[in-house]
Known about the structure:
Helix content: 55-70%
Structural class: mainly alpha
Shape: globular
Strand order of the largest sheet: 1-4-5
Largest sheet: 3 strands, mixed
Radius of gyration: 21 Å
Amino acid sequence: MTTIAPPADGHMASGGDLAAFRVPLLSQSLSQILTSFGGFFAVCGAMYALAALPYGYGAALLLAPLAAGFLVRIFIIQHDCGHRSFFRSRRANDALGTVCSLLTFTPYLSWRRQHAGHHGVWNNLDRRQRGADIYSSCLTVEEYRALTPRQRRRHRLTHHPLVANVLLPPLIFTVLYRFPFDMPKSWRRERRAVHATTLGIALLAGGLGALLGYGSLLAVQGPVLVLASIAGVWLFSVQHRGAETRWAREADWDPQSAALRSTTFLRLPAPLRWFTGNIGFHHIHHLNARIPNYRLRACHDTMAPEGDVLTVSLREAMGSPRYVLWDEDRGRMTTCNEVERDIDRKPA
């Protein structure tokens, strides 16, 4: 963990300084649309061309990670549209977000509303069940200890990095997002939008399948979607979880400290920063969700948030998903294995 020190002139960025970065820049938004969608369609087109050649499918699969990277970038655009930060116009944000959803398999309206709930409760122990999920929530050590052995085994299984970050993400995007399974009945518009998104995906897939062949469509888009979903969920997970992230009770929770102490600044190499839309500057995003992704780095570079910023390298982030329990007595995150060892050592 590192501390971002104040600038040489001693100026600490104010709320007004932060708000100045909220203004979308139309030229950058349009450029990002062109490079993201253009890159995705170009790479997918190359994959289809290679797959049509004798013994060319193996070469096509080599391009799948690149296409997945572009799809992650499209998801970041959808994410910004959901925060109404990509364009000044609400209608333009919603229209583009809906288009993105047909490629990301993520219903725009429902995800937007649920994600807004996440921003209001992240790392708040007393509100973690309101708009939270297994990737941004946790049990306390005391709660975990109170589970039966069978319940603890189930918790360890569902939160194991291979299950939560490799097996579940493709199922979430391809299956669970096709149904409004976790939405209140009062969310009528969002529930209808889930079905409309599924219908749109079916029509798009049907048209492409008739043109390119359904086997070819599945062989190309399947691996791309699987890789993109795994990468996207992993990014979201490690931005809110790790050895040094902090949780607080309602009385001690406030948005600024939660942004600086409970979300991470994930240092990524320049190519990965580009494909992930600067989402590694997640502490800035949580300080002000209306800042477009292409302005997060500039905001980070020109301001110095008070207190420590949790800075995580790519290598350190690989181990972050293991930290799924909050130890209130010690004031730190811990792993299920560590708690299990303590339980085994405890005298009967």
